[in-house]
Amino acid sequence: MIKFKTETAKSCPYCKGEGYFQLRLGGSETCGCCNGSGKSNKKII
InterPro entries of this UniProt entry (predicted)? Predict the structure, then answer.
């Protein structure tokens, strides 16, 4: 049986904890890594 351990980091490394990306042409897009929460969830086997 494989167990997954989830560790929660302080902030998402891709969006730097903001939960979104600022687009160059205006507007913003939700971060796909953290789904807009700003918190990183890493799965370790």
Answer: DUF5351
